[in-house]
Design goal:
The complex is a heterodimer of chains A (about 400) and B (about 575).
Chain A lengths: L1 E2 L15 E5 L4 H8 L5 E13 L5 E20 L4 E8 L11 E7 L5 E6 L6 H11 L7 E7 L2 E7 L4 E8 L12 H19 L8 E5 L3 H16 L2 H9 L1 E4 L8 H6 L1 H6 L3 H19 L4 E3 L1 H10 L8 E5 L2 H4 L2 H16 L3 E5 L4 H8 L3 E4 L28
Parallel strand pairs in A: 8-11, 11-12, 14-15
Antiparallel strand pairs in A: 1-2, 2-7, 3-4, 3-7, 4-5, 5-6, 8-9, 9-10, 13-16, 14-16
Helix pairs in contact in A: 1-2, 4-5, 8-12
Chain B lengths: L1 H12 L8 H7 L2 H18 L8 H10 L4 H13 L4 H6 L9 H7 L2 H16 L16 H8 L3 E9 L5 H11 L5 H13 L15 H6 L6 E6 L3 E7 L7 H8 L4 E7 L4 H7 L1 H11 L4 E7 L8 H17 L7 E5 L25 H7 L12 E8 L6 E9 L1 E3 L3 E5 L3 E10 L2 E3 L1 E3 L3 E7 L11 E3 L7 E11 L7 E6 L2 E14 L6 E4 L9 E13 L5 E6 L2 E8 L1
Parallel strand pairs in B: 1-3, 1-4, 4-5, 5-6
Antiparallel strand pairs in B: 2-3, 7-8, 7-15, 8-14, 9-13, 10-11, 10-15, 11-12, 11-14, 16-20, 16-22, 17-18, 17-21, 18-19, 18-20, 21-22
Classes of the chains: A alpha+beta (about 400), B alpha+beta (about 575).
């Protein structure tokens, strides 16, 4: 994303004039989704179906291209198509629509840069500014393609800096070995065939792109070998190159959440220059390690984290606050303010704030913790003290267990 | 077989108004059919009570024949037809099974289409079933439980073979099958020759079970292999599991089908110690948490340490200690010193003098001593699909183990989670066609009236009257093997393997009483028992009492029992 005007800066935001941005790549729509919150006003080009009555009384329905300002009621982001649908009521009337009519704007990347303008209902707070900064950053690494697979299951993913998009999931039952059926190898190659076809359909390899193949066991190796044999069979130079450059990584399963370990593996680290992912993933690992040790420095859930932040325990010297960025999008104004308050407090205390998106793997881990977690600078042990602590001394009896 | 059935069905759909040759049909009845017919006739007469005078024996027999000896349906039909005749309009839709005596020859000559159509008309009219273009498989409506009692079949039991990588699981089972003459000399020699040419001399016996080319070229087992053998009293099913940690999901699938387990341990120097840290430990924990309580420890490769009794005792003591911490009871453990490659103490006693100190039972004797767990015969049908494939008999052939209840030919079934209905065309148990099968048996079902896309590995086949519910969120009592907290996990139940996450941990429980010790604990430490809520990515058939295994990052983190 880019500012529409060269004079515009993040620091010098004129609240009344709003901020005008240009959509320059499909990934921008994901950022736009983070920027636009309910209650904001968005001005963007739109198509509107208008019924007109001619002089003779006949009715004509026309699709009119116009610019509309709407007050946002809800947003919907389609991750596969990279389209953002913004619904709300029209805020400024023009020849075609009157104030208060409903409209849904579809923002997406097109050949010509699309310009849209945002007015924040509550002004640009620190969280909004951080999202804007991320949206405007220019040196983006190229998205990585990855196939996470096991026998009979393959997930075709595209990993960008901010999110992991599962483009397609291929699930085909593989008949297991049995003395009567010799068809197993045939089925495996038809599975690889399907996977390869959908990999090439879903991911554009015309630009140089890293391909990671991950699986437990040998599926990934076999798939790569299959790609190579297909390439030499059909004489497809492009495929040959893809197969040659593909990196095979071990994972513990073929499910998408294994991507986490895949991206942390040494083979992948060498090629994946995804600094954001690496730091976030490391911090999450740190958090989980502390939680494992139960040393009182890792807490999750809104209540304990809020208490810790208020005490100033998330501050200089290792304090990290993790918040799911979805929190700031869908919440009512009061709740949003509360979380923004937490973020600002941590920043003032000198701690680190990480807004993770639930579209990437670290964010998914955070999501399972309830969307908010913190690493404290010093241990606090009783943040959940409203629980009745009635630990019964576990007597080591040798009776049969309940499970 | 199926063709013959088809013709029979055609027969009765056709309304050929001929009475002649009735005796011919009687002649066609086999002695069993005759017995069933007489039994059925008596039942129908009893059911009809005073109305019996309105119906002749011949009509009853026709009705019974038409409904495959289903007394209730025959009675319903006879009442509507002869006792309280309905108006003509209905009758024309309901084709009576008029003495169709022409036999298969005439029917075969009839155009197919017409035959099927009228069969359908009959079924639709009488039972309100949906119209299909193939006849429903014939059901004999047996009372399976009483049949079971009558037939007193051989005990059937399945066991899973587990252990660390390269402990010699497949080789030992190959040898066992060879010694029991399930596999003949020629096959083994051929395999050994092939193995030698590939430079894997010692793998010949393992190749009896490892049949996939990938498995052979890599010299490892990747998936469960199933083989059967019979001893004097019991029909056994071997489930040979892979040892590699990466294929543990296949091992879980195998263990979920087993009554007991053989844990193979490599006794050679250092191999036991590294195994104990590796898969020996994880497999033992897994099989115990999958509900297998009887374990036979085969201490293998003792020939490489000159049948040292000290080595055997050392391993035995360590393993007994470890297994009892894993909740195996001492009376359910057995230890046998064996050599899988040479076959000592598998079927025959070792002839090696160095091994003469061992006087206990051989592996096969230990297997025979093992009592399979009690079967839930009277419960509604549950069968986990182990694999789905295509055969000559049916494009949807499923194999698996019946976990509860019974199934017979012609039964209507429900496949969950797809919710599709199917019919049993035929059943294979121990590679022979049977009319019915009960819980505990590993069977192959040929299904009809269902599309292959609705059946996949890990599905549950159940009784349509009492289907297994499906859900994506479930609560379970879990025993933690590693630290548990809200995190992504993979859920394994038999063949099923689904990604999900631990969503909440509502309570920490007391290990023995199940009482709540602490509410909403932050984390669960290894060895503790907790109630946890798991959410899956999609809906799966789940039922209270099922056992699941949770894994994360290639480690088994917990095992649980659904609530």
């Amino acid at each position: 994303m880019r500012f529409a005007s060269k004079k515009q800066t993040i620091e010098g935001i004129d609240e009344d004039a709003g901020i005008s941005l240009l959509i320059v790549e499909p990934e921008d729509m994901w950022h736009a989704n983070n920027l636009i919150a309910n209650g904001d006003v968005v001005h963007a080009p739109a198509f509107r179906k208008v019924t007109m009555t001619t002089a003779t009384g006949s009715k004509v329905v026309k699709n009119v291209r116009t610019n509309l300002s709407i007050q946002v009621k809800s947003t919907f982001f389609d991750p596969l198509a990279s389209e953002l649908k913004v619904s709300g009521t029209v805020a400024n009337e023009n020849d075609w629509v009157s104030v208060g009519q409903h409209h849904t704007l579809t923002l997406k990347y097109e050949k010509a840069d699309i310009k849209f303008t945002i007015w924040k209902s509550e002004g640009w707070d620190s969280v909004a500014k951080q999202s804007l900064k991320e949206a405007l950053s220019e040196d983006r690494p190229e998205a990585i393609a990855a196939v996470v697979m096991q026998e009979g299951l393959a997930n075709i993913c595209l990993i960008t800096e901010f999110r992991t998009i599962v483009k397609q999931r291929i699930d085909s039952p593989i008949p297991k070995k049995r003395s009567t059926a010799k068809e197993s190898s045939g089925v495996m190659s038809s599975f690889y065939d399907k996977t390869l076809a959908s990999l090439r359909n879903n991911i554009d390899f015309s630009i140089p792109r890293t391909l990671l193949l991950a699986s437990p066991g040998f599926s990934a190796d076999d798939f790569r070998a299959y790609m190579q044999s297909e390439a030499s069979r059909t004489g497809d130079k492009g495929l040959q190159k893809i197969a040659r450059e593909a990196v095979v990584v071990k994972s513990t399963s073929g499910h998408v959440h294994s991507l986490n370990e895949v991206l942390k593996s040494t083979q992948a680290k060498k090629i994946v220059q995804n600094a954001k992912f690496a730091t976030e993933s490391n911090l999450m690992d740190q958090f989980y390690d502390r939680l494992r040790k139960d040393d009182g420095r890792a807490w999750y859930g809104t209540k304990p984290v809020e208490k810790a932040v208020v005490e100033g325990a998330v501050g200089r010297g290792g304090g990290v606050l993790f918040v799911n960025n979805g929190f700031f999008r869908s919440m009512d104004v009061a709740t949003r303010k509360r979380y923004v308050g937490l973020v600002d407090k941590v920043k003032d205390d000198g701690g680190e704030v990480r807004l993770l998106s639930s579209d990437d793997e670290s964010g998914k881990r955070l999501e399972s913790l309830g969307g908010i977690a913190a690493i404290l600078t010093y241990p606090i042990l009783d943040l959940d003290e409203d629980d009745e602590e009635e630990e019964i001394a576990a007597d080591p009896n040798d009776g049969d267990m309940i499970i | 077989m199926s063709r013959h059935q088809y013709i029979r069905n055609l027969d009765y759909g056709d309304a050929v108004d001929e009475y002649e040759g009735y005796s011919e049909e009687e002649d066609e009845l086999s002695p069993e059919d005759r017995a069933l017919m007489n039994q059925g006739t008596a039942d129908v007469q009893a059911a009809l009570g005073v109305e019996v005078s309105k119906v002749t024996v011949a009509q009853i027999e026709e009705a019974l024949w038409h409904y495959y000896y289903d007394v209730d349906k025959s009675v319903a039909y006879l009442i509507s037809k002869f006792v309280n005749p309905r108006p003509k309009a209905t009758k024309s839709a309901v084709q009576p099974p008029n003495a169709d005596t022409a036999g298969p020859k005439t029917a075969a000559a009839q155009p197919k289409k017409k035959g099927t159509a009228s069969t359908d008309a009959a079924t639709t009219g009488m039972e309100g079933l949906k119209i299909n273009d193939a006849p429903l498989p014939k059901s004999r409506n047996l009372d399976v439980l009483s049949e079971l009692e009558k037939s007193k079949p051989k005990k059937s039991a399945s066991f899973v073979v587990v252990g660390h990588v390269d402990a010699g699981k497949s080789t030992m089972m190959g040898r066992l099958l060879f010694d029991l003459k399930v596999v003949d000399q020629r096959t083994v020699e051929k395999l050994q020759r092939e193995a030698r040419t590939e430079g894997k001399g010692s793998f010949g016996l393992a190749w009896v079970l490892d049949q996939r080319p990938e498995e052979r070229s890599r010299g490892i087992t990747m998936d469960i292999a199933t083989r059967r053998f019979e001893t004097e009293h019991t029909a056994f099913t071997i489930l040979d599991a892979p040892g590699h940690a990466e294929y543990i999901y296949n091992m879980i699938a195998g263990a979920s089908q087993a009554d007991f387990a053989i844990l193979v341990i490599d006794a050679s120097v250092d191999a036991f110690e590294s195994g104990l840290k590796g898969q020996t430990k994880e497999h033992s924990l897994l099989i115990r948490s999958m509900g297998v309580s009887r374990i036979i420890v085969a201490i293998n490769k003792l020939d490489t340490v000159a049948w040292s009794q000290e080595r055997f005792s050392e391993i035995k003591d360590q393993m007994a200690g470890f297994l009892s911490t894993a909740n195996f009871q001492h009376k359910n453990m057995a230890f046998v010193p064996v050599s899988g490659l040479n076959g000592d103490n598998l079927v025959q006693r070792s002839s090696d003098l160095a091994a003469s100190w061992y006087t206990g039972p051989t592996l096969v004797e230990e297997l025979e001593n093992s009592e399979p767990s009690a079967r839930a015969l009277a419960k509604p049908l549950r069968m986990t699909v182990f694999e789905v494939y295509r055969t000559m008999q049916s494009p949807v052939t499923v194999s698996g183990r019946i976990e509860a209840g019974s199934v017979q030919m012609g039964d209507a079934l429900l496949v969950q989670p797809s919710g599709q209905k199917a019919y049993v065309k035929s059943i294979l148990a121990n590679e022979a066609a049977v009319d019915w099968a009960v819980a505990g048996q590993n069977v192959v079902l040929h299904l009809s009236h269902i599309d292959p896309i609705h059946v996949r590995d890990g599905d549950i086949i159940c009784d349509p009257a009492k289907p297994v519910p499906k859900a994506d969120t479930f609560k379970l009592k879990a025993l933690a093997f590693d630290i548990l907290m809200p995190m992504p996990v993979e859920v394994h139940r038999g063949r099923l393997n689904q990604a999900g996450k631990i969503e909440a941990i509502p309570a920490l429980l007391d290990k023995a009483t199940g009482a709540v010790v602490k509410k909403n604990p932050k984390i669960i430490k290894p060895g503790m028992v907790a109630r946890i809520v798991v959410k899956l990515e999609s809906q799966v058939p789940l039922e209270a009492g099922q056992r699941v295994v949770l894994r994360s990052g290639g480690q088994t983190v917990a095992a649980g029992l659904l609530e």
